Amino acid sequence: MPDQTxxxxxxxxxxxxxxxxxxxxxxxxxxxxxASELRSETISAVSVTGGHLGAGLGVVELTVALHxxxxxxxxxxxxxxxxxxxxxxxxxxxxxxxxxxRTKGGLSGFTKRSESPYDPFGAAHSxxxxxxxxxxxxxxxxxxxxPEGQGxxxxxxxxxxxxxxxxxxxxxxxxHLDKRLFVILNDNEMSIAPPVGALSSYLSRLxxxxxxxxxxxxxxxAVSLLPxxxxxxxxxxxxxxxxxxxxxxxxxxxxxxxxxxxxGHDLDQLLPVLRTVKARATGPVLIHVLTKKGKGYAPxxxxxxxxxxxxxxxxxxxxxKKTPSNAPSxxxxxxxxxxxxxxxxDKICAVTAAMPDGTGLNLFAERYPSRCFDxxxxxxxxxTFAAALAAGGMKPFCAMYSxxxxxxxxxxxxxxxxxxxxxxxxxxxxxxxxADGATHAGSFDIGFMANLPGMVVMAAADEGELxxxxxxxxxxxxxxxxxRYPRGExxxxxxxxxxxxxxxxxxRMIQTGARVALLSFGTRLGETRKxxxxxxxxxxxxxxxxxxxxxxxDREMILDLAAxxxxxxxxxxxxxxxxxxHVAQLLADEGVxxxxxxxxxxxxxxIFIDQASPEDMxxxxxxxxxxxxxxxxEVLGVASIGEKRA
Length: 646
Ligand SMILES: Cc1ncc(C[n+]2csc(CCOP(=O)(O)OP(=O)(O)O)c2C)c(N)n1
Ligand SMILES: CC(=O)[C@@H](O)[C@H](O)COP(=O)(O)O
Ligand SMILES: [Mg+2]
Hints:
Layout: E1 2-3, E2 8-9, H1 28-49, H2 54-58, H3 60-69, E3 76-79, H4 86-94, H5 129-141, E4 153-158, H6 159-162, H7 165-177, E5 181-187, H8 198-208, H9 212-219, H10 222-225, H11 237-242, H12 250-253, E6 257-263, H13 267-280, E7 284-290, H14 298-302, H15 330-344, E8 348-352, H16 362-367, E9 372-374, H17 379-391, E10 395-401, H18 402-405, H19 409-417, E11 424-428, H20 445-450, E12 456-459, H21 463-475, E13 481-484, E14 508-511, E15 516-521, H22 525-537, E16 543-546, E17 549-551, H23 555-564, E18 567-575, H24 579-589, E19 598-604, H25 614-621, H26 625-636, H27 641-645
Parallel strand pairs: 3-4, 4-5, 5-7, 6-7, 8-9, 8-10, 10-11, 11-13, 12-13, 15-16, 15-18, 18-19
Antiparallel strand pairs: 1-2, 12-17, 14-16
Helix pairs in contact: 1-3, 1-4, 3-13, 5-7, 15-21, 17-19, 22-26
This protein binds thiamine diphosphate (TPP), 1-deoxy-D-xylulose-5-phosphate and magnesium ion.
Subunit structure: Homodimer.
Keywords: Isoprene biosynthesis, Magnesium, Metal-binding, Thiamine biosynthesis, Thiamine pyrophosphate, Transferase
EC number: 2.2.1.7
């Protein structure tokens, strides 16, 4: 029951836990009680902050069991993606700050080395945990020294994350090195969307073949039944538990001992199994644990995404407190527009890497299921697959978040760009994204796409522009093309009745002024306009242009702006090495600096910016309207308001 005075759950046992070592003093039945309190505390905390709820609720018992059995931080507990780490944070000396999750100055929503010694390896992109656990195991065996010591390495990886190539690369290597390490496969039959692909079917078969109830009944005696040692002997744990032979598992062929499936919500199963493997394992062991995403909170269990991510919510009703939107989201505009194009052109198809809802392709999948491909968490494969779809005469839109496209970069270079294949990259979550912080910021795509020969790179300044760019990309058959747009809602502009086909490499003038030209690439155009208004009030009316293209550049427009203004400032939501760098290169090559142009480039600073609201993050980056105004004043040598007052 919640404590009515504070709106917080009653957690008498949890209140006595300051660190994981305290769990060692609890009996198994107290650990079960602790898990229940930990679940209530997690729900309560996320109701205040919003964030990733379902995954954490699914691993509450697992978190308790792991901390009760292993000795963190000496043992290295590595959470894959780490969106399920909130219960872990509560148990590892961060409960006092748990209601600051994902906010400016607060706890990160992911594990983070700089935050706690209990987070030995940061994550937020998926499928890195087995590689990391293997690295720790090898470092330990080679005598690597850490202040907290080095014990076992344990990776907890979800069924979605397990489908990615990197997880298999790591297992391949781990089986070969034969190091003692533990992989907990947390199988909840969910990714963000229902998982897809052969591995998912394989895992379902694994436990469909096991009469789970029988296994549950046998589990209390599991310790004595476990094979010894795990790595040897023909019989598998599951064979022993059930008394029949069902053949080797995929994981065993990688050199892992396989144990499971076990009920990940039952501490009577988890504790003996973990204690035994800790005592006896010599090589790599995979423990297959079945859990429910959203477990123990009805609204999450009932939700389509099992409470994967939520806004702040009312704990009693589960109702989310979403801020009403004033404009369509960029993602929504992309999803709607692509469906319209697909209706007219049956060659248009779409690829997502496990993010059908996040990229807006869910609508496409509904309407044109045979032309929409969720490839799972497999950005590398997704890009190459799209390249071959293009080579095969289709018109693929490869829709990925900027940050996740990073994982498919060699494929962008090697399979798409070098072969000049017309893949259309819809790059969502471009720029700073807010609560997910630095790991999810789309900071680098302008740089890494625009430096590729033959790649066309566009950025939408608003949702209307996005409509034009989708149409332009659909029509562009001569090589690859990319368009980027941010997370969240658009500017509220009037939507075009008919999409325009943009001339490749041509920008547009927004307003003509004097002395200084502001050349924006992307959605900073809104802040640029605000800055221009403030400057106009001070008697300086800047010229504003929207570049639309970082590659190819609108040379004519840029050189014209340079020739007719005392100063030129470029503004983009990306790191150094992007649009501004290309403009600077052009200006240098054309000798414009020799003629005395004052040039400044406003880019994301050379730091990883921690989570906050996107507005706050852009302020930290020095890129809001007031900071654009200040930059203009500085470059023109005009005293700013602050300086005048001083
Ligand atoms: C490389 C990469 N691609 C996509 C994502 C987005 N993503 C975050 S969690 C998630 C689903 C993970 O599913 P699973 O591993 O089964 O964990 P669960 O949420 O079910 O606990 C996805 C696709 C990501 N974090 N990293
Ligand atoms: C953990 C993860 O990678 C995703 O859940 C991500 O947080 C989704 O971000 P959006 O909310 O922008 O879709
Ligand atoms: Mg899952």
